[in-house]
């Protein structure tokens, strides 16, 4: 009987054990292990060759003034246009003249009258010296008064005549001439000619020790336009920071001025022959020491100490530490 009870108890335990095991079992999360990924770097090769340094200058003009000219009245007829667009003019040059009617004849008539009055004045003056018994003071004073009036008429007519001409007020360049001048009489609201007045001088300062040549023609640009500038002078100076600088004075070749207040001048300096160089972003500085990252045969980067020279147009010259063809990392 005892054996039967023991057997039954073992059987019940056998049935109960699987249930107890499921209840206490811990559920484990799956762990994903990614495949090994090697870091890739953007690289470039160390190059050996020639570098042409470019000296860039920012030029600023001294000053200029644009002036538009209009007829003094309506229905003025053009007599002659003496200039064309782009011409360089100086103070006093007649640019355009208009028909002045009989003003010239009037001036000529008064000048003849003034000449006769002068002769008559000389005559009475001589008589007063010869004939001391006769007083010619009244005649002489009347003639002098008449001469003053005649001279005044001439001055007024000459001023009026001057208004029938457009005259340059200084050194400048003809910027534009209106087509109205070819179509007939012009009116007081017609802008018939535009002049740019100024010296045409441009200035720049550089800390570079490039040897400029006075009198040489250099090219400068603004947008898509190219201008020829002559170097007028070079002055050695020291700036506020104590750096040695060169103050440069240029003038537009063949004279004239433009409306361009600033220009850029790029000068190719003598080439540096057969040098090693890399893009400047490949070089980094740690505690005043220079390094570049190279890539070994397994694709890993390594910091290599280097000695550098000058940096030119985004390229840095390598004096030691790298060889032609080495792969370096672009930082």
Report on this structure.
This protein has 331 residues and is α+β, with helices and mostly antiparallel strands. The protein has three domains: 69 residues, Beta Barrel (conserved putative lor/sdh protein from methanococcus maripaludis s2 fold); 79 residues, SH3 type barrels (Roll), CATH 2.30.30; 123 residues, no CATH class. The chain is 23% helix and 39% strand. The chain contains three helices and 21 strands. A six-stranded antiparallel sheet has the order 2-16-20-19-18-17, with no helix packed on it. Helix 2 packs antiparallel against helix 3. It is elongated, with a radius of gyration of 47 Å. The chain starts with a helix and ends with a strand. The N terminus is likely disordered.
In brief:
With 331 residues, the chain is of the alpha+beta class. It has helices at 2-24, 103-130, 137-162; strands spanning 43-45, 47-51, 54-61, 64-69, 78-81, 88-89, 94-98, 165-167, 172-177, 193-198, 201-206, 217-222, 225-238, 244-252, 262-268, 272-279, 283-286, 289-295, 301-312, 315-320, 327-329.
How many individual domains?
3
Radius of gyration: 47 Å
Q: Biggest sheet, open or closed, and with what strands and sense?
A: 6 strands, antiparallel
Number of helices: 3
Measured between the Cα atoms of the first and last residue, the distance is: 89 Å
**Percent in strands:** 35-45%
Task: Decide which structural class fits the backbone.
Answer: alpha+beta
Uncertain runs = 1-20
Mean pLDDT: 86
- Kindly state the percentage of residues in helix: 10-25%
Q: What quaternary form is this? A: single chain
Q: Spatial order of the strands in the main sheet?
A: 2-16-20-19-18-17
């Amino acid at each position: 009987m005892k054996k039967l009870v023991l057997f039954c108890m073992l059987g019940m335990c056998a049935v109960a054990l699987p249930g107890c095991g499921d209840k206490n079992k811990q559920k484990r999360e799956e762990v994903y292990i990614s495949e090994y990924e090697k870091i890739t770097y953007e690289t470039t090769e160390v190059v050996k060759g020639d570098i042409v340094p470019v000296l860039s200058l920012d030029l600023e003009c001294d000053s200029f003034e644009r002036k538009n000219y209009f007829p003094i009245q309506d229905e003025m007829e053009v007599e002659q246009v003496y200039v064309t667009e782009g011409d360089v003019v100086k103070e006093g040059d007649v640019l355009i003249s208009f028909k002045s009617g009989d003003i010239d004849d009037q001036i000529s008539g008064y000048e003849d009258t003034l000449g006769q009055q002068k002769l008559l004045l000389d005559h009475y003056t001589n008589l007063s010296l010869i004939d001391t018994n006769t007083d010619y003071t009244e005649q002489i004073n009347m003639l002098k008064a008449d001469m003053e009036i005649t001279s005044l008429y001439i001055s007024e007519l000459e001023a009026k005549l001057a208004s029938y001409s457009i005259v340059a007020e200084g050194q400048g360049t003809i910027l534009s001439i209106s087509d109205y001048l070819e179509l007939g009489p012009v009116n007081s609201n017609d802008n018939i000619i535009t002049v740019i007045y100024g010296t045409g001088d441009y200035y720049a300062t550089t800390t570079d020790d490039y040897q400029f040549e006075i009198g040489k023609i250099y090219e400068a640009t603004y947008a898509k336009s190219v201008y020829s500038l002559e170097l007028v002078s070079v002055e050695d100076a020291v700036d506020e920071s104590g750096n040695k600088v060169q103050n440069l004075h240029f003038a537009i070749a063949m004279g004239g001025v433009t409306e361009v207040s600033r220009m850029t001048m790029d000068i190719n300096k003598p080439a540096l022959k057969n040098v090693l160089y890399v893009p400047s972003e490949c070089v980094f500085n740690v505690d005043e020491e220079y390094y570049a990252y190279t890539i070994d045969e397994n694709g890993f980067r390594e910091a290599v100490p280097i000695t550098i020279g000058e940096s030119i147009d985004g390229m840095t010259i390598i004096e030691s530490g790298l060889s032609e063809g080495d792969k370096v990392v672009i930082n």
